[in-house]
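User: Please predict the structure of the protein below. I'd like the answer in structure-token form so I can feed it into my own downstream comparison script.

Assistant: Understood. Taking the following sequence of 119 residues as input:
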Amino acid sequence: MARIERYVEPALLLTLRDGSAHGYDLGEALEDLVGERVDLGNLYRMLRKLEEDGVVSSIWRDDLPGRAKRDYQLTEHGAALLDTWISALDGALDRITDLKERYDTPSPPTPTSQETPPS
């Protein structure tokens, strides 16, 4: 199956734009958005890197049921990065649409070596 790489990052930023969440809930939300299960280990590594880059911030929450959980929020820098991602995805969507339209349009038959080209 063909895959579009790095689609998880903008989906994660979009999910956090809608409100803060902890990692497990983000994994479930991302599965709905990207159409496949997201590896939680990779997700937590991505969240740590995004936090180092100032794209997300986090706080430990011990007021929720169960163990303490790290709650992630989108920062202003993260919101700006999401805007950049959406612009890039818009451009990619245009190129994908062009490619798909070209694929769907039958191409004219090519002359074979036995045919004489018109003069």
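That's the full token string. The chain has a mean pLDDT of 88.
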